[in-house]
User: Fold these one by one.
Assistant:
Number 1:
Amino acid sequence: LTEKNELSFEKAIEQLEAIVKQLENDEIPLEKAIKLYEKGMNLTKACDDILQQAQEKITYILNENGETIPFEGEE
Amino acid sequence: VQNKYLTVTALTEYIKQKFIRDRHLQSVMLKGEISNYYFHQNSGHMYLTIKDNKSQIRAVMFRGENQLLKFKPENGMQVLIEGKVDIYEERGQYQLYIHKMQPDGIGALFLAFEQMKEKLQLKGYFELERKRSIPLYPKHIGIVTSRDGAAVKDILTTIKRRNPYVQLTVIPTVVQGLQAAKSIANSIKMANELNIFDVLIVGRGGGSIEDLWGFNEELVAEAIFYSNIPIISAVGHDTDITISDYVADVRAITPTAAGELVVQKWDSIRDNLQQKKQQFKYNFQSIINKKSEKLTRYKSAYAFHLPQQLINKNKYDINQHRLLISKNIKNKLSQQKQIFLFMERQLKSFRPERQINTAKNQLTQISELLNRNMIQKIEKQQQRLNDYIEKLLLLNPLEIMKRGYAIPYKENKIIKSVEEVVENDRINVRLVNGQLNCRVEEIERVDIVD
């Protein structure tokens, strides 16, 4: 389900942070900077998409058979 | 008269019998406070006094029984005791012989807690190095708690308020009473088997130490210790610390606090991303700015500013090079020409045909000379050969024999001396044209004078 997206969100944020760090050094060759920029743009877009696509989840409860069913104890 | 008086021993024995026959004294259940506690190292027996605010009784607990104690008695400790009251004859004292002893009420649980804490500490359950880190962006959170009650509500509403996009699943669990420990441990194991959770919250609301007791039991500690999923322990209030709080990867002081620390606020996730995005764009822009600044600087440099100068200088250089090269080539050419002419002259002066003629003549002369020499040599040799043949002819024994010489033989051996024969020997004398078979008549010896 959302597993892969969420995982990549954490990874994407991590990678984005790394790119920000790399771009703090302005001795970096232009070609590399452009590549990093492209990668960074893709990452931010991926993160944006994940946030945009996030949907409110209903809470589940585990029944005796180990199955998840909607939790009705909520207000 | 004397018989009316008892001995001390008899009296003591009499009193002892009274105690022994009293079934209440033989099976006493007593509560009180420990004082004058003394552990006798050599014998292993415990000596103590049990008292309340008005009375006291001396007591002893023998080695065989006190070895079963789970706690170490201390002065001031409230205890529950099973034992009997009996007489200690030597001292004339009655005292309590303790069979079983346990801490009274809350004290027992407190002790058990301390003991469990120590035990698990030794097993390494609380080591910081083994604690798992809680994921920053969990997608699915399992909540091990009672489906009813305040705790589950607190956790759910807190998480939902902060971040409604996280999946929550309640794992209904008995968190109070005798079944609690087993139920909590089972829920944690089941959550691990399902393998869908990023993090678990294990907890319940506040209550008495008895209410929270399940979270202090080894079963629960083990389940948390062996869980593959990171666990946040959230039991009671901030004053309630349980064993599960020590073993868990993170302790939340209340269920609500667990909800707060398990997810980041949605807004702050978004803001953080926004901030990262801006930072990233800004960094990139500043690189571009720095590079274009550099470019401008280069552009305004002398060479770029007056390019004709650069070209002129290069033109001049190229011409210089061209001149130098053609000069070099001319020199090389004339030099080669000189060498060629010289060689040609040399070659012409050689006139090979003359040399060949001379050589031919020489060859003819030499071969004629050779022929002449050879003929002379052969003639000379021929002459020498003839001389040899004549000499040989002279030496031929047959020629010599022609002149009248004979050769005597004895048994086919030439006789060279008179000593080689005796009278009457048969000898052969060979002449040039035959042989004489003779017998020696007489031997005369002649001395040869050299």
Note: Chain A touches chain B at residues 2-3, 6-7, 9-10, 13, 16-17, 19-20, 23-24, 26, 28, 30, 33, 36-37, 40, 44, 47-48, 51, 54-57, 59-62, 66, 68, 71, 73-74 (CB under 8 Å).
Number 2:
Amino acid sequence: MTKPVELPQGTLEMLILKAVSLGPLHGYGILLRIQQISGERLEILQGSFYTAIYRLERRGWIKGAWGESENNRRARFYSLTAAGTRQLKAETAKWTDMAAVVAGILGKKAGEV
Amino acid sequence: MSLLTAIRRLWHSVGLRGMTFLAAIRRLWHSMAPRNSSDVEEEFRSTVEAYQEDLIRQGLSEEEARRKARIDLGRPSAQNENYRRAIGLRLFDELGGDIRYGLRGLRRNPGFAAVAVLSLALGIGATTAMFSLIYAVLLHPFPYADADRIVNMFGLHESAAGTSFNWAALSKPQLDDLGRATPVESVLGFNPTQMEITGAVPEEIAGTYLTENAGAFFGVRPLLGRNIEPSDAENGGHSVVVLNYRFWQRHFGGDPQSPAGRLGLWVPPASAAGAFSSPRKSLSHCFSWPLRAPPSAAFLGSCGRRLATIPQMS
């Protein structure tokens, strides 16, 4: 297994929005999905995880509803709201921008500047 | 915008119109914390259980799995606290907790509570009383018309500079000059003095001589009779007095019949012209009548507040 990656602050919420955008998920499912997509390289602190979910729901970006999980357990499924979709789009654009700028700077070699 | 309007606007904007008060409160409460604790707890518990099952599938014993899940995730019963913290209600919770703690403490220690309440009551009471006094004595605006445009001017003796007797009263010509100055609308002269009431029980009282324009100057309507009028100064002046409310109450029992002719004074006997309407509306603690002395003798002094001439600025 490759070295685990630590999440920069504030990015967890973005990842949750992304995970939920692929289809309604319950809390634990979101966690698994993020870990799965990341190739098991993300260590997500459980405590901060639910805090992020609560905050996203509070802001109206995701919406929770009770339903049945795959193993017949009652679980709360989250789905993206319209506002959440917009937010995800904006955050993604921002992140891509920022990452490109940072990568551009870090990628410079002597003599290129 | 008044506070009430603001509240009403807020009320409408949250969509509370047409609800009973209780329903509105419930709805506000709900919008603050949309999920209750059992809801949050149940969700968290289902996560813990799912995680536990995964751990068992990975080969842990049930006991080990339960233990690890508990360590990794925390107690479901504590989750509501995390929820409320996440949505920003922690401050309210802590405040509520502090208040409850305080009340419990007060209930456990009734003696201490009584002392605390009593000190607060005394403190607030004393402050209020003090302020009422200061307001009435120092801050309360004079009840005269355009009180904010009345200024008090007096001359200073250079020779007596630095002493408390350095003010100088104005002579009648000086007063008249002052009255002709453009920024001065009208000018009032007064001379406070001590005098004595004659009768069964002689009494020393404080009085003030006023120039004949006093009634118009102060713009205070007497409760009974009339104000001092310019005609009172004709032919060397008449003996007319305006009583203040307290004096009228004390000496005449507030008799609505004019007490004219019933007041004997040691200084030229005066007949009362009027009484002012209320203690607050009375002219200081003095009672007064027109300045009747010949102009050359007229000088103007200071009352308790160091008032000398009071020109009214236009």
Note: The interface with chain A takes residues 34, 42-44, 46-47, 49-51, 53, 72-74, 79, 82-83, 85-88 of chain B (CB under 8 Å).
Number 3:
Amino acid sequence: MSKRIVIDPITRIEGHLRIDVDVDGGQVNKAWASSTMWRGIERILVGHDPREAWLYTQRFCGVCTTVHALASVRSVENALDLDVPLNAQYIRNLIMISHALHDHIVHFYQLSALDWVDVTQIPKADPAKAAAVAESLSGWTRNSKEEMKAVQDKVKGLVASGQLGIFSHGYWGHPAMKLSPEVNLLAVAHYLQALEYQRYANQAVAILGGKTPHIQNLAVGGVANAINFDSPQALNLDKLYNLKGLLDKVIPFVQDVYFNDVCAIASFYPEWFSYGAGVTNYLSVPDLPLDEKSTKFAMSGGTIMNGDFASYKPITGPKDEYFRKGVTEDNTHAWYEGSGGLHPWEGKTEPQFTEWQEDAKYSWVKAPRFEGKPTQVGPLANVLTGFAAGDPLTKKWATAALERVAKISGKNVTPAVLHSTLGRHAARAIRTAVLADLANQQWELLINNITKGDTRTFNQPTFPKGEIEGMGFHEAPRGTLSHWIVAKEGKIKNYQAVVPTTWNASPRDDKGNPGPYEASLLRNPVADPEHPLEVVRTVHSFDPCMACAVHVFNPQGKNIAKVKVL
Amino acid sequence: VRIGVFGVGNVLLGDDGAGPSVIHWLESHYEFPGNVEVEDLGTPGLELLAHVAGHDVVIFVDAVAEDAAPGTVRVYDRDAIIDAQPVLRIGPHDPALGDTLQALEFASQGPQLAMLVGIVASSLTSGVGLCREVRNALPEAARVVITELEKLGVNVSDRLNTTETPWWWQGEETSQ
């Protein structure tokens, strides 16, 4: 007999992600992903000046502010066929990289690691052994026995007090937790260090963007930063070296600590390389433009269908028709009018709310499809397409990750294991390590270009008479983001944002094909329906960011149900 | 003493913009000494970590869902903030005020004092602009923040020329 589990962490007036799974014989045999919140923010933009759209779009979501700002200005530049000065490209690239480094570090340590790390095992660890394990992984200087002992004492204090504080919502002692006490200790030591290093990445964004979380320096046509080495207000050498100093702290943390922690944790959970593949059609877009016309990129993009590397097809840039014509959104199972795929420029967002109906409409998320097929986006798509394109940095770090996991686990590990729950975590770590290398490259490109005497940062946009259409994309931390704009006489007529979590959390489409979250949960084990840790692991591996919206504080929040077993 | 006054909320979702609007009110009516940061942080989720770390005192300003008339202003202490957090997190967003405080406390980087000045919201639907009750409550919420700062010995002065330029998101009042 199958059992229905509903995970619905409603914490405010309106909720966000709800997952329903049917469990039979200890594994999931049906799944539905649903957003319980209305997402119609794009409608606010209609009638506004396209040059100001980015100020609104960066308020869509507090975690992904800068990415929506960037995709927005790119969509307008694309509509106007406006070039972007090299300095502006490099400055934007550095902002995007710093933002991504921050985001990936926070996601892994603060949100996901505790799905795999059991804090309550830490008092049993031998700090000397934990330090030895750490030293075998990297030359990171903050892995000493003393450091491990100090963290262990902190955790012991917490456990003894009976108040687990920040760790109170973990599934402690769950049978699916398998790390040794020493690796648990190591992970929590780095959890604490991550709190420090994520700040440096955030400060790097602020140096270039003016402030965070809402950067101030973007403009349609470039950036608003003035470059002048003789002015204390402008972007000068002091600020650029300050930026370099911050990157020099974050990069080793990413490459020596985060990257190795993911490999070490993965080695203890080899079975999770076989769960959670789901949809193996992948999409990523090229990013970090290297020329004024955005035709050359530091990171490649494209598609892979049915998990087959040989099917790799590149996306060459924002003008590539393969991408521009490939994207549709379907409302068959979403709470909007209509069904069947519509191109974003023709996209409609007219609400039609019904109850949650598993065979009809059940989500506020639309179903984006690429050439009609459900498609996964995110770091895994980014890494797989980069690998297929022969990108040297992706190859370097992907190979390093697989070799490391093989060495620690003593098992044969091929690139095929990446199509999985754990593969998404590994790919995020690989991508972060690649971005860390690219941060240095972009910083050098910027400083070399300025030293050559080029200080241009902005091209003035002019709006033609009549209607124009544009598309701006960005390979954001959670995957491919695209903004689609239609403007007429200098005013926005239609605006659609196709966001990464919409691709991944999409409901079924008109053909009944499930979205990536839904497909990935099939055949996931569930040892204890009251504590569906395994379901949470797979959902977290996508790094969901649904609640691009309400932030109301609810003093009664704790009383609202979290997991229901029907 | 480093003090942060942080408005949180989404200005594109009606009364959820209460926090950022109070920040705007504070900035246009008062002058703050250099050790007080007054910032509109939007809907930061766990990104709050980067902003809260390193402060001795943090005052959040946010819309609240309470059984009280819209526009009611209430102050919540640290324990109330922590009690209100979700039991199970799915995304990085869940208000995360409590998570942020607890994570930083565990790392010995947390503020010694944290509180939340809340304004009871009425409508949280997609759209720019506050309802009349919440809009009328902005000066009171701002005064509550100032009173808390004065209790800490902070010297806040009135701006001689109130610069009440509307921010880009401040649309017309929505009718309730």
Note: Chain A has a mean pLDDT of 90.
